[in-house]
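Hi R.,

Here's the chain you asked about this morning:
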Amino acid sequence: MLSAIIGMAGGIVLLSIMLLFFDPVAAIALHGVVQLVSNGTRTIIQREHIAWSLTWRYSILLLPMGLLGVQVAFALPPAIGKALIGIVVLIATWRPGWLRLPTEVQETEPRRRFIALGGVVGFIGPIIGATGPLIAPFFLNLGLIRQSLVGTKAACQALGHIAKIVVFGWAGFVFREHLLTLVGMSAMVVGGTWVGSRILERVNEASFVLLYRGVLTLVALRLVLWEGWRWFQSGL
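And the predicted structure, written out as tokens:
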């Protein structure tokens, strides 16, 4: 619903809430499956407009770098993993510009830019889960029409989630143990998109954005402060 109403933030809110109930490895792995459903749907809808020449280049380094990133994800203490994601969520909510690469990146030839981007996302995806704020600037100034921009970004994100699913499975995460949870969450993603699309015109966007920022900030602070304190105590 959130993504349908304001066009962003659904994935990062979902991951933040999931971290209240799962350890980081499980949360990021399951989050990847649910987000694959979300981005996969947009990819299918906009398939005729996708810039495939950029998308396949984006995919080149996803798996190799993902295999490195997932090892870091499993090595991190759960409390540190949650606190790290909480920090990223706070930055993405209030200072998204800090997550963006320098403006000079726009001067890089797009095909090389997307190969490098796939490598970065492949590595950090299994560690922090939500990479939307990072990849968004790469889709600017490409001369893409709106449908092509939305479809290409969705396709790239879907590929990133597929890579995460593969590397977490390779590392030993058993997705089938969470099958019912995944089916239920995926169904709610589809239902939430449908509902959100229909109430879009009735919502005061400014108030809604303020509400989501407030909730997300509280959840992120809980992750950073509580989990950071737990890690500190365990080290004493």
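The chain is about 75% helix and 0% strand.

Let me know if you need anything else.
M.
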